[in-house]
Specification:
Elements (H helix, E strand, L loop, with lengths): L17 E2 L16 H15 L6 H21 L7 H12 L10 H11 L3 H4 L5 H12 L17 E3 L5 E4 L3 H12 L1
Parallel strand pairs: 1-3
Antiparallel strand pairs: 2-3
Helix pairs in contact: 2-3, 2-4, 3-4, 4-6
């Protein structure tokens, strides 16, 4: 599979809404198929080959901005932020050049908050606690919405709804968030 050309926006689950599945205790079962070993070996080989090249400062900055933009775009999109990738790239590039465009409240502010989070190494350092998760939430949601209280666990039920009104994802029930957060951090 060519992951570079995958368009996850076209991914469609079998039925909507996709419902949150309880994860207490949080015990992820991670495994890779045996054929991934070949892919991982090829990635290491390409990485060693790439080490022989020297990038200009501008090329490096462009690659970092593209990586940040893609990561932030898909992270906030699932939460309902509908800024297009091109706008997220524009904001990321301007931010990295020292032009900060805060726009309280709104979707652009959410992007700026994510960019600020890259400079919060003390807050994001391991090990994480419940308080760390609250601090990160507070950092990411500051000035984004008047409906969300940054750093506080929500007390109402929420879901991700598309512009057409389709309910795509039903989030964790509010009554279970505290237990799932404790389990995740442990």
């Amino acid at each position: 599979m060519d992951y570079q050309k995958s368009d996850y926006s076209k991914f469609k689950p079998v039925a909507y809404p996709v419902r949150h599945r309880r994860k207490v205790p949080f015990e992820p079962k991670l495994s890779l198929p045996l054929d991934y070993r070949g892919m991982l070996a090829r990635i290491r080989e390409l990485d060693r080959e790439l080490d022989r090249f020297v990038l200009s400062d501008r090329d490096f900055t462009d690659l970092v901005n593209d990586a940040y933009s893609d990561n932030i775009h898909w992270s906030v999109k699932i939460e309902g932020n509908d800024l297009p990738l091109e706008e997220v790239r524009r904001l990321t590039t301007r931010f990295s050049e020292g032009h900060i465009e805060e726009r309280n409240p709104g979707p652009r502010q959410e992007i700026i908050n994510h960019l600020y989070s890259f400079f919060a190494k003390e807050t994001l350092g391991l090990p994480w606690t419940e308080d760390t998760v609250r601090q990160v939430h507070s950092m990411l949601m500051k000035g984004v919405s008047e409906e969300v209280v940054p750093g506080e666990i929500r007390t109402m039920e929420v879901s991700v709804v598309g512009r057409d009104g389709t309910e795509y994802f039903v989030a964790c029930p509010a009554a279970n968030i505290e237990a799932e957060l404790v389990s995740l951090v442990e």
